[in-house]
Amino acid sequence: MKLELRGITKRFGDLVANDRIDLTFEPGRIHALLGENGAGKSTLMNVLYGLYTPDEGQILVNSEPVEFAGPGQAMAAGIGMVHQHFMLVPVFTVAENVVLGHEPTGPLGLIGLDRARALVRDISARFGFDVDPDALIEDLPVGVQQRVEIIKALSRDAEVLILDEPTAVLTPQETDELIEIMRQLRDAGTSIVFITHKLREVRAIADEITVIRRGKVVGTATAQDTEAELASLMVGRAVSLGVEKAPAQLADGEFTVSGLVVTDAVGRRVVDDVGFTVRGGEVLAIAGVQGNGQTELTEAILGLRTPIAGSIVLDGTELTGLSVNDVLDSGVGFVPEDRSTDGLIGSFSVAENIILDQHDRPPYARGIAMDLRVVRERSEAFVEEFDVRTPSVEAPISTLSGGNQQKVVLAREMSRPLKLFIASQPTRGLDVGSIEFVHKRIVAERDHGTPVIIVSTELDEVMALADRIAVMYRGKIIGIVGGDVDRDVLGLMMAGVAPESAEQEAAEHPTLLHEADVIADDQQSEEPS
Amino acid sequence: MTQEPENPESPVVPEQDPGTGARGNRDATRPDDQWLRDAMHRMLTSNWLVTLLAIVAALVISGVLIAIADEDVREASTYFFARPLDTVSAAWNSVAGAYASLFRGAVFDFQAPTLARAIRPITETMVAATPLIFAALGLGMGFRSGLFNIGAQGQVLMGAAAATYVGITWSLPVVVHVVMAVIAAMVVGGLWAGIAGFLKARTGASEVIVTIMLNWIAIWLVTYLLTTTVLRQGGSRPISPAVGENARLPLLFGEGFRLHWGFLLALGAAALVWWLMERSTIGFKFRAVGANMDAARTAGINVNMIFVFVMVTAGILAGLGGAAQILGTDKTLQAGSAGSIGFDAITVALLGRSRPLGTVLAALLFGALRAGSPLMQTVSNTPIDIVLVIQAVIVLFIAAPPLVRSIFFLPSPDRPRRVKEVAA
Ligand SMILES: Nc1ncnc2c1ncn2[C@@H]1O[C@H](COP(=O)(O)OP(=O)(O)O)[C@@H](O)[C@H]1O
Ligand SMILES: [Mg+2]
Fold first, then answer.
1. Above 0.90 for ipTM, yes or no?
2. What is the model's pTM?
């Protein structure tokens, strides 16, 4: 099946999310759509999948114009989609999820679950997926959940399979398995649309690459192009891919967590006997798949959660038992992982968000009276310093882009003398320009002698920033390794393999991306500079 | 959606959404009545035009009801097809007559023999508005802080009872007595509301439920106290004696008018509340908690403390409303002294979008409906209940801004208002 998009335009108010996009997806090809956060990739795919109606343009299936009023019609036409955010019911089994929405019914209208199971087994066998039809979704690791989504699409005879940022949640090894699956499907004649903003993946997998920037197709590329070339096409200017940083200069400060145990509402140990030390002037990254206790760890440090055991000591002062306010006052800067819920107040102005944790002390307030003039002047200075693009400091923060919102959070947290800086997912959802900015500020804070903790699920970010890396798995720290560790080793540790065996295993079974990297490195070193 | 690691033996289910991230269920104070809060938020963020149109729509709908209820209109409608104009003119007469008498009773009586009688209605409107302003200011502060306090009724009544107690049992010099009575009302109203704030902070109990229950407790407590010597001195009816002369709020324009100092105090309270909410660190915290509790907590604001604070402040204001009603208007306390002040105040606060100026205006509107309806009933024979209909329809419309917008063909405000990212 050949799928074409012609002149697709989609607007949200004044924002043109897709601007006259032309694309053709051929059968048996892996077509990568590359573009940074906010480029309009998901919007385009939602148009294709019938979730949005385009303002202009046409969709053609085998050269026939079609119109999809909803995903049902898109599916019927042979288009399957695995969303960036999975659409599975956690308390249903794999088989139930796969047939959800078009359940095979037997006599009396009962759902024919046997047929559903058979369907799952059949597809699993065909492509070598290892999926138990009777497992509950919530018990499955995220990589397997994703496979269930793929099975779901295939069970509806998808001839075009759209994968929206499928690797965002995977470890390198899981990514590897996904690549394997994509190749098999391609060889079986499915056309695959692979959406990503990660350069290394595109180069390893794609047959064709189309780059989208600010809603427009800005060019096509091949897997032979270098990452730097792809990056500059994607961003629109030359970008430095790594983070420049000098070796760590250890300074005085010291932050130590030991024997920390945090339980959740039902008493499970979500942080289990965690201990580490960060010295001034170094970045400790806490890596791991989302949901392995990192959130709870940072919240316990900040005083949002009360640990049931252990201690948290900053420069000799015990932080456990202190209120959030006191923790902040003792010199902790904190960038929460979810800026829209925990970091910012959407209806408040940029200025009010900048002073959120300082509003009741000088110079912003005298007694209980706030000095709005000082608030405005200071926040204007911060907006300037942190390059926040906003019409004014009075604008509601919700009208700013994610990158600018995050800069506001950083401005707030870094605008006072710090003894410890913690940032969770500091660049999640940001564009490349903002990512560069955020990374630079973090490195600057480190070089200033502050102990820095970065919690990130993005391996690239961890590798770029960390001097040392602690990997969390099921609430425990599975190992602390140096910042120059091999990606594959880190990936295995994220899946729960201890550091020593991880090293061994990584050496024996390098991942595809790893091999691609090695080749790319070779090429680069061959190129005369 | 929140997923946290299962027990250490079962596989970990990571958060699936890299865009929004996971958040633990951090404590017990996370509200279950989120829908209520969302509805509140919508009401508070709808614009002035919608509010105004809601009032217009309510008057139109009530006009239809007035016409239907009118004898002449019904009679004329029996021969509607023969002489349709009769029905139309009868309807016009009844509606115009009703609203004209409402106006005469509430704002300016253009048929009055003396100027004093002519302007008396507007002062009556202010009298009726006074306790509403106080109570609604407190509720509005709560709404903006994310607390749905339905307890103004009980708080008003408790404040009224405290003021009465001081007014009838203590004997103090001029000024001092009324000040003490007012302070007593503030303290008792604040404590009464503080119970709900404390329970929410401590146990996560919904303030909606707790304040409703406190309303009942207040009513029966006062009813009981009115049978004891605490509030009743002699007599058999459950009604307190009049508060002492020194404990009364002085009249503003002498004996001919009931308008008293309470109205000025209410305006002063509105100004103070405005300053508190917009210019003080306390209001900043209140608004932060109301707009995003999680972010407020992460920024070091003690959310539980704020709950208590907000409720106490609201209770103080409601208590003042009770004091104004007794010390300024009624002079004696009955179980029904609070009337429906506490409930009307909810509508007033919503109609005023919880802003002090809006609240004052909305309270005046409600005061006008209350002050004008008796004349409307006697002059134009319109049932007094039509006023309740107007109030109810206003609530209905401000609770459903999309409805008002579609009736009046207004554009929806929900269009994304994003600043296009400037080249980064
Ligand atoms: N439903 C929506 N309403 C308003 N704006 C939206 C909506 N969905 C996406 N956008 C905006 O459109 C742009 C493209 O978003 P998206 O397609 O999700 O980007 P990508 O998937 O490439 O990261 C972004 O600026 C985003 O904020
Ligand atoms: Mg996307």
1. no
2. 0.83
